[in-house]
Amino acid sequence: MVCPYNESYVLLILQIDHSRIAGLLAAHWGNAEFAKPSPYASMVLAAQEHDSGWWDWEVKPTVNPEGYPPDYIGSIKHLGPGVWLNLYRHGIERLAAQDSYAAYQVSMHGEGLLTRGMGLLPSMPDYTGDPAVQDFIADQKKLRTALLADLRKDDSLREATADSQLWNNFKLMEVFDQLAQFVCNRYPFNSQARKNGPSNTLANVPVPVSPGKPDVTLTVDVQNESEAVVRPYPFDASPLNLSFEGRLVPNRRYANQDDFLTDFYKAQRIGINYKLRAARPVLAENYSQKSVL
């Protein structure tokens, strides 16, 4: 993510760090009103690793044709032919070796990034006219068929592998991603400089609440440079502390990749600390009104 910082620098947030924030959101999701993700460990892992494939590119990032570090939005096009598809494919393959259910969800998410969130995100571009994208989607559908066949052999996952629960968990994945984007792609928290990315209603993605209850829409009301109120509040602690790292690189045109990498590797790291709060006390068995440190 490329965020405005000042006239001299831009702030870079790695997608793998954004992914870790999504995992933290998933880990703390659930209270008296909102159901905890299920299966818990697999869903937290899926959220945490949903963009882990970006590691392939972010260890040695390139610049765009104009010589500037590229933003994550539109990356399927401006990273070059096949780059995004391959890094996402590799991330899913690595995850499948650890947790089949998590890989199934990240595979759905990867397809969703190319298909307007499988209908949940109509404002996103539709990339399905690209033959390479069509091949990727076909491969992912084949992979998910194989993963699901094995998962359904486990009686303990009978509920988790029902079609309705798989779709419910996909919606949760989209919520975790949208909220983690909203958190990570602005600095300070109340900055209005970015003109793209999720709105404060997270693109109106339907948010699952609990069995038998209708989906809702979350609203993130930023209060100041470091805090936001979330309505309704889905987490088990308030405030929920979110910390991640950014890199400051000069806001200039780079002659080539090596020129950029010199600044990228030497870049000053800054710690970014935000808080999400409930508008009112939330009652839950495991809910805490203390900061999660």
Task: Provide an overview of this structure.
- The chain is 38% helix and 13% strand.
- The protein has 293 residues and is α+β, with helices and mostly antiparallel strands.
- A 6-stranded mixed beta sheet has the order 1-2-5-6-4-3.
- Strand 3 (219-222) and strand 4 (227-231) form a beta hairpin.
- Helix 1 (15-27) runs antiparallel to helix 2 and helix 6 runs antiparallel to helix 7.
- It is globular.
Q: What's the total helix number?
A: 9
Q: What profile does the largest beta sheet have?
A: 6 strands, mixed
Q: Report strand order across the widest sheet.
A: 1-2-5-6-4-3
Poorly predicted runs: none
Structural class: alpha+beta
Our Rg estimate from Cα atoms comes to 19 Å
Secondary-structure element order, N to C = EEHHHHHHHHEEEHE
Distance between the termini: 25 Å
